[in-house]
Write a structure and sequence with these properties.
Layout lengths: L14 H5 L2 H7 L11 H4 L1 H5 L13 H5 L1 H12 L34
Length: 114
Amino acid sequence: GEISSFPDMKSTRSLVAKHVTKEKWDKYHEHKTATCGFTLEKAIACAVQFDNQHVGLYAGDWDCYKDFAEVFDPIIQEYHGIKADAKHTSDMDFSKITGNVNPKAPIHSTRIRV
């Protein structure tokens, strides 16, 4: 169920514990995103429930990044070591990827974040 009081975070050294203040919690804890009704409580659930989170924040949909920007932005900036005015660029041109992967090496899976 939903909690209205400021949560007790088990991951006390997480970025969520550092940046989700009582003031931010009070401001956003009742808000639900338009896309799927995601809440700040859901976004920080891992930092609240587990004691081993470094970050402890997950976006349930795109709206989280704008609706909870006061929480997400400083965490993203600290984690990636970027300034508030940094701009992300994506270049999806695979022809620019170079490397020395051994064609005989068995690659079972890979993950690329964009």
